[in-house]
Amino acid sequence: MKKYYLHNGKALTGPFTMEELSEKRITAVTPIWFEGLPAWTLAGQVPELRALFTNTVLSFRQDTPPPIARPLRNKTAQRAARARLMRYTMVFLLLMVLLGSVMGGTYQLLHLSKAAEKEEEVQVDFRKDRTEVLNNLAAHITVKRRAYKYSILGGISGLSINICNNTGYVLENVLVQVSYIKANGELWKNEYVNTDSMHAFSAMVCHVPASKRGESVQCKIISVRSAQLGLDGYNWPGLTLPEPVNMVERPATRKK
To answer: Which of 29, 43, 74, 148 is most exposed, with minimal Cβ within 10 Å?
Structure first.
């Protein structure tokens, strides 16, 4: 059924059927529009409406015709549109996952390459540091005696020594010779102190047995064993290993 729209010179009204339009008192100069007309038209130019005219004259300001209602797309078309949207979304997500995988693999390769370079640099520094330590063992592994008690009648007690590992390597064993010296400068006897495993950059305080004779004490490292440094215990500079008499292994207190 045809629907008609009217314009009273100020506002748009409608849509109206033919029966409703007959009650609106339109005239030959009443602007009217219905679907099929290209623009607003005077009612007098529409033959089917001439029987409805009255003598009322209205002023008219031409305006844009009302929009034509568009039919809704059927459900099949809507489902097809949703399916296309889902496909596009899935393709987009798949592309994003693939891109992330490629970027992640590239990052991992770069990380591994940098790690390999860093490890190589560490190995070079390790070799340099090891060579430096081996060339100057006496400066990196040291022993010092601590305070002790001396009897005026002869004899030393309360003696302990401080062994320091100033390297970045583990020492499995350090053998220290402690010499008790008589008043005339002659050696009274030697005691030998073994340490347990010493961590890198650590120190130990070791207690030494008392002596009934002796006025002073001398101590020196005579053997070091370290797998990391390649020391087997018999390659200390200037080492002349004595017979292991009076060798004692004492509990050591690790210096904090």
So the answer is: 74
Place of tokens 């008589």: 182
- Looking at the fold, whether 34 and 85 belong to one and the same domain comes out as no
d(CA 127, CA 248): 35
At 87-123, the pLDDT tens digits run 999 999 999 999 988 888 888 888 887 877 776 665 5
Report the percent of the chain where pLDDT is more than 70: 79
For residue 63, being part of any structural domain is answered with no
pTM to 2 decimals?
A: 0.45
Structural domain containing residue 26? 4-52
CA distance linking residue 76 with residue 103, whole number of Å: 41
Q: Are residues 98 and 186 in the same domain?
A: no
Q: How many residues does the chain have?
A: 256
Nearest Cα to 163, choosing from 217, 222, 75, 95?
222
* CA nearest to 153, candidates 128, 130, 129, 182: 182
| Mean pLDDT score of the chain | 79
- Pairwise CA distance, residues 130 & 118, whole Å: 18
- CA angle at 141 for the pair 140 and 142, rounded to the nearest 5°: 110
**Gap between the Cα atoms of 96 and 101, Å rounded:** 9
Number of structural domains (the chain) is 3
Looking at the chain, the whole-number percentage of residues with pLDDT higher than 90 is 21
Nearest residue to 16 (alpha-carbon basis) of 36, 35, 38 = 35
